[in-house]
């Protein structure tokens, strides 16, 4: 009889690892510096244009796809501005990793087509107002994204609140 522990199979080992939800968001501003945010009827707070990363795409591709799906605007995601990590919570049973990309500046009068049944409204908000409307987790990402835009340094932030 051996005292060495039994090794797990690769499948058992992989199944034992924690899963991580991955999402990508878009930081978009108008020429006056207002931030584009959207509101889903099923969520308390406003949010960035964005969503979960689909199988077969990377976070940057996800941001561009979500922009098109949620606004009708076609544009490739630009530079990575911030990465946000949230630990499991009562809202999510796994950690979440959010990537915030720079989608540039567009005119506030650019037509925006919201997907029926998914989003109820959009608005251009001054940064201070957007920080309040986004709630604690997303406002942390916005502050980090705006700082990264200003100095070109990607931010990594962590929040105990999921805001997924």
TrEMBL record:
SUPFAM superfamilies: Nudix (SSF55811). Pfam families: NUDIX. Belongs to the Nudix hydrolase family. Its cofactor is Mg(2+). The lineage of its organism: Bacteria, Bacillati, Actinomycetota, Actinomycetes, Kitasatosporales. Gene3D superfamilies: Nucleoside Triphosphate Pyrophosphohydrolase (3.90.79.10). Residues 18-148 form the Nudix hydrolase domain. CDD domains: NUDIX_Hydrolase (cd18876). InterPro entries: Nudix_hydrolase, NUDIX_hydrolase-like_dom_sf, NUDIX_hydrolase_CS, NUDIX_hydrolase_dom. This is NUDIX domain-containing protein. It comes from the Bacteria. It comes from Kitasatospora paranensis. Keywords: Hydrolase, Magnesium.
């Amino acid at each position: 009889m051996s005292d060495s522990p039994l090794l797990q199979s690769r499948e058992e080992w992989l199944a034992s690892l924690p899963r991580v939800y991955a999402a990508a968001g878009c930081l978009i501003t108008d020429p006056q510096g207002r931030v584009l945010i959207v509101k889903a009827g099923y969520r308390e707070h406003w949010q960035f244009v964005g969503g979960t990363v689909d199988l077969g795409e990377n976070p940057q591709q996800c941001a561009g796809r979500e922009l098109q799906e949620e606004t009708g605007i076609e544009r490739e995601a630009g530079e990575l501005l911030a990465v946000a990590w949230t630990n499991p919570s009562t809202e999510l049973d796994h950690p979440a990793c959010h990537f915030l990309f720079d989608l540039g500046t567009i005119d506030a009068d650019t037509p925006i087509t919201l997907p029926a049944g998914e989003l109820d409204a959009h608005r251009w908000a001054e940064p201070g107002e957007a920080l309040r409307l986004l709630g604690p987790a997303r406002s942390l990402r916005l502050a980090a994204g705006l700082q990264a835009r200003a100095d070109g340094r990607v931010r990594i932030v962590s929040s105990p609140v999921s805001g997924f």
